[in-house]
Fold this protein.
Amino acid sequence: MSGSDLRAGERDSGHRTHRPWAARRLPAMLVASVILVAAVAALVDVLAVRAGRPAAAWRRHLADELATRSVDDVWMLTGAAVAAAIGVWLIVLALTPGHRHWLPLRSPAGCPRLRASLDRDGAARLLRDAAMRVPGVGAAHVRVRRHRIRARADVRFRDPRQVKDDLTAVLDEERGRLTLARPPRIVVRVRRRAD
């Protein structure tokens, strides 16, 4: 199956395939832990003050610092910039699917809810093995990205233009076998390598 047949099959299926969403357990755990520690510390101090004890030194120091420092102070601006950067990072994590290392596969015709993905390194190894079967290719390096497959090959014999054409055809055929939902464009570079 060629890449054009694959794209036609994707259009006929009537649905779009997306990358799976990452659970993002580590950022969620870190944020929850920081909020939990801060909330428990503040609650314990408030309960201590209600019980008649003086406020904790850290809370008095923090209140004094916030009351006496001006808004254009270096530490205030640095703290605001760090808080804003963390907030933007968390928003990006919440709005993007993640799993950038995985390529979604095309769902079978009768199963639109069935979803599968292929690791980009695994796809690169399959394409490299296919490239090594082309006569004249002595060494090959393949990198698979979301929108582009870059293949470099060293030509040991034969005309490099013929090797490039054959290599492009073989990679196109192998890409079709991968049944990727959005097949990346193939870019092939060859160079003559003398023994």
User: Anything to note?
Assistant: The chain is about 50% helix and 15% strand. The beta strands are 102-104, 117-119, 137-144, 148-155, 185-192.
